[in-house]
């Protein structure tokens, strides 16, 4: 009896989830290095419509009539397309133009990967992001920024597109080379696990990280003084929102109609 | 009593159509989904005879009627859904009468869903994690031999389904032809059961595109309006029949 109500319910749930994802993308339009996600749908199992009011001879010719039980969200995919570049001129703002990700080391020692290249210097001279996770680099700035008596300025820090970090002292002609920032990429980036805070975790599906330096094939180049904007495209999200909303409405309508049919059935008796 | 059963048959048929419409509506964003439509048939027509005592030649025919209506089959419309450009290197859309062949457990099922990804071993899989088949079986895009490929630059899939990784031919995605008129059985998760056909394969694969569902919102809403009015009419017939039976049972024999 009225399985259609249950089918419509799966639709309402699914499109609500899709709408949630769209709102999440829109909410992150201004999140540095954010990568948008989208959900995809599968249909559910099919069952035979039991009411077959046909004589046997006719019935043998055709497949039994069947109907589906609705839909479900089968996967959520992260889209790693490049976001736009915004110039900030901050010496510790870094953007990757290409596929590489920064590796940060969290307080508990675990590693995470991110495209968010807004870094700061903490009291010990380490490079950290806004949540205090350390950028995985082989140097720190302590002897330049903290211990020098006259104090330095971050303006003296240069990072080239290959990730080499230089410190220019005023009274020296040649800048001093501190080290190189490495980038990491994955064979199957869509397999990465999203872990909030713009960070991704390595999984079995993503494969092990491939480490390289900026400028190497496939890793992309580093841009100092730029940040990568979110890759959310407002026009696309608005289109999704319209699609989802209409899908939700039509499923709600179907549910109402099933309800009306049901109520008519109950009133059939005089 | 015949009218009562006819009304019931009609109501059940409209219910079945409602289920199909509801299912189509829920799958309006399912990639590669093909919409279903219920086909209604009437039962065999019967001759009605007038029994008239004065006619010595026997009852004379007065016309025909069908005893009932039935939903005899579900027809799946195999028309193409909208092509959406996604620019994702692992989104494939088939244009024409082809299915992907997918290894699901021990059997091979067909699907039009081209929203693919890679599994932990680098095999080309769909969102269920089932492997897409090429001429030489499952297609391993990355893996021990190709640990550092860069999907967005190195993976190219031609319109005949040939898969190239970094310029090197790997395998060809197998497409199974379908006959748009045939009766396909769906088994969920965007799969169709295989069906032997003589149809010629005339299909091309497009990388970076995704085939949407071929459900048409306006059509489904119209069908819903129509079926709910049909249902209402059948319900009225049932109601009236009940009233007639009520009179027959309770009022005809009463003495005043």
Features:
heterodimer; A: 270 residues; alpha+beta; 2 domains; 5-stranded antiparallel β-sheet; 3-stranded antiparallel β-sheet; 27% strand; elongated; B: 256 residues; 7-stranded antiparallel β-sheet; 3 helices
Chain-wise SSE layout:
The complex is a heterodimer of chains A (270) and B (256).
Chain A lengths: L3 H24 L9 E7 L2 E3 L7 H6 L4 E3 L2 E8 L6 E3 L6 E4 L4 E4 L5 E4 L5 E2 L5 E2 L5 E2 L6 H5 L10 E3 L4 E4 L8 E5 L2 E3 L7 E2 L4 E3 L8 E3 L8 E4 L1 E3 L5 H33 L4
Antiparallel strand pairs in A: 1-4, 2-3, 5-20, 6-19, 7-8, 7-11, 8-17, 9-10, 12-13, 13-14, 15-18, 16-17
Helix pairs in contact in A: 1-4
Chain B lengths: L1 H25 L9 E7 L2 E6 L9 E7 L2 E8 L6 E3 L6 E5 L1 E7 L2 E5 L5 E2 L5 E2 L5 E4 L2 E2 L12 H4 E3 L4 E4 L2 E5 L2 E3 L8 E3 L2 E2 L10 E5 L1 E3 L5 H34 L6
Antiparallel strand pairs in B: 1-4, 2-3, 5-20, 6-19, 7-8, 7-11, 7-16, 8-18, 9-10, 11-12, 13-14, 14-15, 17-18
């Amino acid at each position: 009896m009225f399985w259609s109500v249950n089918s419509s319910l799966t639709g309402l749930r699914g499109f609500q989830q899709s709408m949630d994802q769209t709102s999440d993308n829109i909410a992150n339009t201004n999140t540095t290095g954010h990568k948008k996600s989208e959900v995809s749908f599968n249909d559910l199992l099919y069952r035979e419509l039991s009411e077959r009011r046909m004589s046997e001879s006719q019935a043998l010719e055709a497949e039994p009539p069947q109907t589906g039980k609705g839909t479900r969200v089968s996967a959520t995919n992260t889209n790693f397309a490049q976001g736009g570049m915004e110039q900030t001129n901050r010496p510790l703002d870094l953007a990757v133009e290409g596929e590489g990700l920064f590796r940060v080391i969290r307080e508990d020692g675990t590693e995470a990967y991110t495209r968010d290249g807004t870094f700061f210097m903490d009291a010990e001279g380490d490079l950290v992001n806004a949540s205090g996770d350390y950028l995985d680099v082989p140097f720190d700035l302590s002897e330049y920024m903290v211990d020098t008596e006259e104090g330095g300025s971050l303006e003296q820090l240069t990072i080239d597109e290959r990730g080499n970090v230089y410190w220019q002292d005023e009274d020296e002609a040649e800048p001093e080379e501190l080290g190189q920032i490495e980038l990491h990429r994955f064979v199957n980036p869509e397999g990465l696990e999203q872990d909030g805070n713009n960070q991704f975790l390595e999984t079995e599906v993503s494969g092990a990280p491939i480490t390289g330096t900026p400028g190497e094939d496939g890793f992309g180049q580093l841009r100092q003084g730029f940040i990568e904007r979110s890759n959310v495209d407002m026009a696309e999200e608005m289109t999704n929102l319209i699609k989802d909303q209409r899908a939700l409405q039509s499923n709600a309508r179907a549910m109402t109609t099933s309800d009306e049919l049901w109520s008519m059935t109950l009133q059939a008796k005089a | 009593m015949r009218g009562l059963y006819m009304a019931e048959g009609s109501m059940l048929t409209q219910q079945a159509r409602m289920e199909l419409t509801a299912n189509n509506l829920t799958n309006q964003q399912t990639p590669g989904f093909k919409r279903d439509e219920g086909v209604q048939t009437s039962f065999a027509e019967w001759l009605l005879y007038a029994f008239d005592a004065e006619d010595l030649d026997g009852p004379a025919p007065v016309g025909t009627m069908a005893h009932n209506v039935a939903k005899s089959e579900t027809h799946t419309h195999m028309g193409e859904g909208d092509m959406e450009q996604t620019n994702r290197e692992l989104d494939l859309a088939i244009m024409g009468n082809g299915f992907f062949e997918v290894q699901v457990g021990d059997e091979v099922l067909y699907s039009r869903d081209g929203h693919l990804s890679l599994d932990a071993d680098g095999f080309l899989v769909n969102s269920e994690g089932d492997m897409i088949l090429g001429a030489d079986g499952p297609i391993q895009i990355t893996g021990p031999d190709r640990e550092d490929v860069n999907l967005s630059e190195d993976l190219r899939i031609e319109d005949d389904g040939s898969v190239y990784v970094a310029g090197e031919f790997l395998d060809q995605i197998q497409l199974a032809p379908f006959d748009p008129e045939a009766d396909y059985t769906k088994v969920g998760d965007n799969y169709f059961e295989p069906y032997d056909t003589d149809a010629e394969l005339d299909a091309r694969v497009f990388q970076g595109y995704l085939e949407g569902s071929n459900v048409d919102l306006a059509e489904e809403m119209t069908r819903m309006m129509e079926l709910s009015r049909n249902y209402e009419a059948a319900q009225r017939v049932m109601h009236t029949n009940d009233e007639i039976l009520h009179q027959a049972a309770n009022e005809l024999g009463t003495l005043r």
